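FW: tagging you since you asked about this chain on Friday. Here's the raw sequence from the shared folder, copied in full. Didn't touch anything.
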Amino acid sequence: MFEVHPDNNGLRLAGRLDAAAAPLAEPHFEALCAAAEVDMAELEYISSAGLGVLLKAHKRLSAQGAGLRLVQVSPHIAEILHFSGFDMLFEVVPAGDSA
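HL: got it, structure written out here
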C-alpha cells in the first residue's frame, strides 16, 4: 500500500513507492511548483519506478531554480538512494537528523 499526503512544506510519503504506486504519486509531484521537502519517514520501499518519479520532479523543479529535499530518510531508503546515485542529486536528511 502507498499513501501520499500533501502538507505545507511539500509531500509526506508512506508505504511502498513501486511501479503500481508511481502513477498515483506522480500528480502530487507534478503539483509542486517550488522547492519542497519530501518526508520519507514512513516510506518502506522505493523501486526504480519511484526513483523515476523523483527524478522527473527534480528535473522540472531544477529548471525553475528549485528542487526537492528528502527528509527523515530511513537507512534502507538512504542505501537505495546512495547506490542509485540519487544522493548526489538531492539533499538527503537521515531520519533523526535535525538538519
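FW: The mean pLDDT is 95.
HL: agreed, and The first strand starts at residue 2 and ends at 7.
FW: great, closing this out.
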